[in-house]
Amino acid sequence: MPSAESTQANVHEQHTVRPTTEDAVARSGSELIGGPLGRRALLGTSWWTPVRVVALVAIGMFALGMVQKAPCYNSGWFFGASSQYTKACYSDIPHLYQGRGFADGLVPYFDKLSGDMPYLEYPVLTGVFMEVASWLTPGSGSIQDQEQWYWMVNAGMLMVCAAVIAVCVARTHARRPWDGLLVALAPAFALTATINWDLLAVALTAAAMLMWSRGRSVAFGVLLGLATAAKLYPVFLLGPLFLLCWRAGKWRDFGKALAGTVVAWLAVNLPVMFFAWDGWSQFYKFSHDRGVDFGSFWLIMAQNSTDPLSTDTVNNLATALVVLCFVGLGVLTMTAPRRPRFAQLAFLIVAAFILTNKVYSPQYVLWLVPLAVLARPKWRDFLIWQACEVAYFLGIWLYLAYTTSGDAHKGLPQDGYHWAIGVHLLGTLYLCAVIVRDILMPERDPVRRAGDDDPSGGVLDGAEDVFALGVAAHPPRHAAQFDGPQVEWGSSGTASSTDSSL
Fold it and tell me: Which stretches does UniProt call biased (Polar residues) (predicted)?
């Protein structure tokens, strides 16, 4: 009689989706490392499981991203502003070590800073992350030595976040662990990982998505609340989740998720709000008061106008645009012929927020990478988008080099920078377009074409609709008939074969 381990291995062999068999780009790229996966790679009999491979590749790519910053490590961050731009190795981390009082032992949010910024302008959990890194930074040596150490300590902590993100994505779609390689190998991910502290929020969000896929609504909410305490964007995931739970009638699970989010966010923020209101609110004041900035279409408009819009006007227009996008997503969710997958709407809602925002910093691509992989695990489309983001990564530093090099004008002039902005905006819009197409034409969705419904949807996976509009309100509704045995994945990662149709 076969053992439980061999039975589970056989189930994985039969049902694990191999990108080298369904994706022409992945199949062609695999020739660089010996060709498509074979039988032994799928059996899971060796130590080299997909999740471990994905984690190690992610760490390796992150290390290459650190090497890319090496030209700045010894000089670029400290001597001459233009060299950190011409060598494309800029990072906020060493500059803010002294600029935000960490070098002087000031407590974020409680101790007032000297200069234009009165308090640390980051959400509380990110401030905690920065403070912990300062505790681990040696206080001896010159300020340059300390800033180097501070960047290195932060890089080590962010590397852990990068590995967590890759592993969570690989485990969220149980039959598609190799999709995690899209995260691990994403060039823009490696290039922007140590510009700022965004990876903390991205890791918590990826972990939240994993918990939701396992049906753990409270754990999802807690992690999403912590992610929102590190960066604002994760809270937007509650919007599509609300719509999907409405369509599927899963109100109890949404209520648990919402409660977990609120409680976790308050647990982190309330102490600082109570004892250091001015410091706590600095992030929100700064976000509201800052003008149009790098990477946004608002900047193109402002730099080509003799009478630029005021900051208040831009705030109102940006808010109106993002609300309009959210309404459009609501209509799409309720009228789509088949209920959209959670990851699809999560990507679209975060992308809508970024595209309409008055700033689209190069590291914001980190917010989208894991969501993009879960929403559209197709190498061609993913690499097209990544190429656009890499072009913008180079464009912004060359533009800053141009503006800081004086009469030498080394770098990219303003018109060229506007083209770079256009490229990365169009790249994100392209990925949004193909995801919307997948929603309207589910047969084009690579996840559903492989026989799944909504692997990241948790309780939504395979659920019947109880409310829909338009064509979706009439039978046949959400459920699709798949021939052959299906696989049910438990929270422990084990699988059992069933013969029921979705």
Answer: 1-11
